[in-house]
């Protein structure tokens, strides 16, 4: 019996080794016949995620890409991020390839590590299906025609926010206050939540969620990723409570005319888990990206007084043409041309989303290399935003870049492009412009930490929250 057992184990080992040799032979042969992008996968499991995260924490996420484009290829290189083998696409031609190829040879993809933080476990819904559903629902609310009636609402909320959170103080920290404003606005639009206590309850866990989205995905107590996963569960419990409450209200015919994203999804008879996943994603996007953009606009206006002066003059012309207490409207927003040029230059230097993930639907070629079906893809805004080929003297702050016809196609991509351009682009633009109108006509300000550093997580943020001193404007 013992001899038979040893023979069995011997044959099993021979089979295992044989299969391994055959696999390695085929892998080696295929890697020779397919011209894969050059690069380095880094360490097992974590790949090069740690290097990417550390560069982001130093406020220099483009260094990760620049080092590798210099070493391997200026068009595309191979790496491993968030536990996934990945091809990183670089430059305007790469953006054009990806944006025009969406739904042809590439499709939406979210890293499993992010899905674990943000979504209920679901074996029935792929990233492609989730993205498609989101893009059916959101345009009803986020296209400019639908948003125009909200301009007076955004204006009123901005005025109230500045009056209660800024005016009583000589010094404030900008970043947390702006997050409070943008998230409160999102609560109003997405779920008609206006009570400050309800908004505060939803806000609390989101910082931990955001912190873990781009982190080494090690889910053990004490890590950033673990805290984000736990906070994601809290967020989903809160959102599910909102859905249940609104569903009961509709059944009882309470506020039947109230319309927001959540109510629309309930009218579409979507599953509660589906609604929860999508609302969670909307809240995350609302929480960090626009607040980051507004914060860095305020930072930049403090650093460049001549730019502040031009923005101020443009906004004062609009204000002086209004009657006492008259809210902003769409015609006013269309006049904010230089203000938007200034915001665009900030979005170029500090993009609130530095890139996005995709997946190859089929084999395709780019830059002389083959991208195999199933490979994950990452495109990065900094490969054009800070490239002197597209933006001369790229570190210089110059809003005039966006006057006239503006930069070449596929070079300015803070909102992506093609069919998968961020559906919230117009919503973000209205928030930024309305808030900037109100703050520059109410205050001048100075930075209290002249050389304050900033870091990136999902979006850039000042490490000390951008403290400023305020000087009220007498009008």
UniProtKB/TrEMBL annotation:
Tell me a Gene Ontology molecular-function term this record carries.
Answer: iron ion binding
The UniProt keywords, alphabetically, are: Heme, Iron, Membrane, Metal-binding, Oxidoreductase, Transmembrane, Transmembrane helix
Transmembrane regions listed in the UniProt entry:
6-25
**Which of this chain's residues are annotated to bind heme?**
422
The record's section on InterPro entries has: Cyt_P450, Cyt_P450_E_grp-I, Cyt_P450_sf
Q: Which GO terms describe its cellular component?
A: membrane
Which pathway does this chain act in?
A: Secondary metabolite biosynthesis; terpenoid biosynthesis
Q: How does it sit in the membrane?
A: Single-pass membrane protein
Can you tell me which residues the record assigns to a coiled coil?
none
Q: What compartments host this protein?
A: Membrane
Look up the record and name the cofactor or cofactors this protein needs.
heme
Q: Major location, coarse class?
A: membrane
Alphabetical GO biological process terms: sterol metabolic process
Q: Which family does it belong to?
A: Belongs to the cytochrome P450 family.
What's the protein here called?
Cytochrome P450
